[in-house]
Design brief:
The chain is α/β, with parallel strands linked by helices and 288 residues long. It has a single domain, classed as TIM Barrel. The protein is built from 11 helices and 10 strands. The longest helix is centred in the N-terminal third of the chain and has 15 residues. The radius of gyration is 18 Å and the shape is globular. The protein starts with 6 loop residues before the first strand and ends in a 7-residue tail after the last helix.
Length: 288
């Protein structure tokens, strides 16, 4: 078993693994448990889930079955929009803690910048001060929303988890977050295969040079940029491949070539488009 000792240090001193395993869209409980167990066995120590994914219980079972001491793992989960209020965030956290069958969460995020994010953030601040969350952060927030939340609350987010991949590289956003001591974490590292990314000629040429896959090149690119990355696969071999990114290094020329792929546009729904916000706001007050 390989182990990943590469970490980043968050703005409160907590160390976070630089490479993680996500379980978005893996809903079958048995499959989720199996792949998370495989990920931990492979060497992943950061596991990322969310209440809306519907698989926290299976992740919790995998954690228990792994035999890896709890303190060696870094578990992230998130409050979704229907719980985006002070009381709602408290309820969501308690439910996630129960489903994961854990005593504390390493990183807890507000999943979307929709609803009463200030009320929810104050709930997270209280849970953080109580010591049952080691770090708190946000997901899908733009820089102005990060600034607003930070300026009018006590605790600055430790992490902003956002869409980052070779087609949407967000260097300016990363620079802003870094200036505030906030760690950028990516979701959608492979752009969910959009634009035939796995067969992109620039990425394939680089991958062939190192005897690696295009997926490994994309994850290594994020690692060298100082971005915490998440990958996901229900295929055990791919799980192992996606972790094998610590034995090669992209050159400056490789990084420059990858930079040319940037289009600075999302390949998903724009979380900040008015129609998307209206759609997401429809979840407020609902339960799943």
């Amino acid at each position: 078993m390989m182990t990943n000792t590469v970490t980043v240090t968050l703005n409160n001193g907590v160390k976070m693994p630089a490479v993680g395993f996500g379980v978005f869209q893996i809903q079958d409980a048995d499959t989720t448990q199996q792949v998370v167990e495989e990920a931990i066995k492979t060497g992943y120590r950061l596991i990322d889930t969310a209440e809306v994914y519907g698989n926290e219980e299976a992740v919790g079972k995998a954690i228990k079955a792994s035999g890896v001491p709890r303190e060696e793992l870094f578990i992230t989960t998130k409050a979704f929009i229907q719980h985006m209020s002070y009381e709602g965030a408290k309820e969501a956290f308690a439910e996630s803690l129960k489903k994961l069958d854990l005593d504390y969460i390493d990183l807890y995020l507000l999943h979307q910048p929709v609803g009463d994010t200030f009320g929810a953030w104050r709930a997270l601040e209280e849970l953080y001060k109580a010591g049952i969350i080691r770090a708190i952060g946000v997901s899908n927030f733009k820089n102005d929303q990060i600034a607003n939340l930070s300026l009018f609350n006590e605790v600055i987010p430790a992490v902003n988890q956002v869409e980052v991949h070779v087609f949407h590289q967000k260097q300016a956003d990363q620079d802003y977050l870094a200036s505030k001591g906030i760690q950028m974490e990516s979701w959608g590292a492979f752009a969910e295969g959009k634009n035939d990314v796995f067969n992109n000629p620039v990425l394939k040429a680089i991958a062939d040079k190192y005897g690696k896959t295009t997926a490994q090149v994309m994850l290594r690119w994020q690692l060298q940029r100082g971005i915490v990355s998440l990958s996901k696969s229900a295929n055990p071999e791919r799980v192992r491949q996606n972790f094998a990114i610590f034995d090669f290094e992209l050159s400056d020329d490789d990084m420059a070539q990858i930079a040319t792929l940037n289009t600075d546009t999302t390949v998903f729904a724009d979380h900040h488009d008015a129609t998307t916000v209206e759609l997401l706001a429809g979840f407020v007050g609902k339960s799943f």
